[in-house]
Amino acid sequence: MxxxxxxxxxxxxxxxxVGVDDRETKLFESLWSLPHGxxxxxxxxxxxxxxxxxxxxxxxxxxxxxxxNSVIDVxxxxxxxxxxxxxxxxxxxxxxxxxxxxxxxxxxxRAIDMVKSFFHLxxxxxxxxxxxxxxxxxxxxxFIEAPWLHWPETMFTYLVEDKIxxxxxxxxxxxxxxxxxxxxxxxxxxxxxxxxxYFATIVSKYSKFVLRAIEKVKxxxxxxxxxxxxxxxxxxxxxxxxxxxxxxxxxxxxEKRVVIVYGSMYGNTKKIAEVLEENINSExxxxxxxxxxxxxxxFILRDLLNAPAVIFGCPTxxxxxxxxxxxxxxxxxxxxxxxxxIGLFGTYAWGGNALSQLKKILVEMGHEVIEPxxxxxxxxxxxxLEKIKSLAKKIASRVLNKVS
Length: 404
Hints:
Elements: E1 9-12, E2 15-17, E3 20-22, E4 27-28, E5 32-33, E6 38-40, E7 43-46, E8 50-53, H1 61-69, E9 77-81, H2 87-90, H3 93-99, E10 104-107, H4 109-119, E11 125-127, E12 133-135, E13 140-145, E14 155-159, E15 164-166, H5 188-203, H6 207-220, E16 226-227, H7 239-251, E17 257-262, H8 268-281, E18 286-291, H9 297-304, E19 309-313, E20 316-317, E21 320-321, H10 323-335, E22 341-348, H11 354-364, E23 368-369, E24 374-377, H12 382-403
Parallel strand pairs: 8-9, 9-10, 10-11, 15-16, 17-18, 17-19, 19-22, 22-23, 22-24
Antiparallel strand pairs: 1-2, 2-7, 3-6, 4-5, 7-8, 12-13, 13-14, 14-15, 20-21
Helix pairs in contact: 5-9, 6-7, 8-12
């Protein structure tokens, strides 16, 4: 008896979204905040044989199975496609196998190896290669290897007859979907912002592989009517828009924006940041200003993406770089955000070593540090503020040259 308690959304005849929303997890990867939740998208394809494309996080396995059962009996599944082994997409695999004992697991060679090491399943597997196909009776699945998006085993699955691309984490977004899953139903401005934050925190390190995958799909000459990623909305109205955004972010196309990130223990560094913001805005350039002690670091990384310049305001703390700023700089290196034009200012009480330390680290990372570096003892003087205005003007000029 098939339960009808679950939820599904038909994308095209015989193709269903059977994913789940996660509004409980507070930090994605135990790092990145989820103020709007996140979706784990799983897809059911019905030909003569029944196929599940990706699963969901383990905690939501029961809900996934209920959603499948609202369309077919989960026992009828013939194949489960594993585009990517990260646990938010593969975590429910053991429960799927338990409930559909005859199901075959399909993935790249690396994916199949990971299935064995992650889950130790005694299950029939099918390794597929780039360009290979699987006929499921009335529908054809074509597999496109897309390594390092953002793990080495990743592939895309293309449903030939319905012209649907299932790219897993590529073109994904933070944000739960609720009762609406399509791009023409949701608040796209919110999802594009959340997609940019997703890109900055999850994908940015692998930008060159994003570009390779996009170029690879373009060269295949396949029609794509729908892009169905494993996080965020399903793009049916304008599927190419999200591809264009990922390409733009990957190429680091400069935007007319300066990011100011500062720490301020007693208010002096904040005062300088406010002067900087006012002067850069007066040059016709947008600013994104973050107090590192209270700001969400994932939003800071989002704003840094495609910003040609960043200005760090760093008080000296115990003779060192203000710790939250040091953490951000570490993330810039880990995520390999494109090289920036950088301004530095800071305050100190008796020993101003932080800025020289910070400059050394940033230059070694390949960033360009602009003079003057403004180091302020105590509260800023009129002379200090003039130097800050000079720094603002130099940064603004460089940004305008970048975007012109």
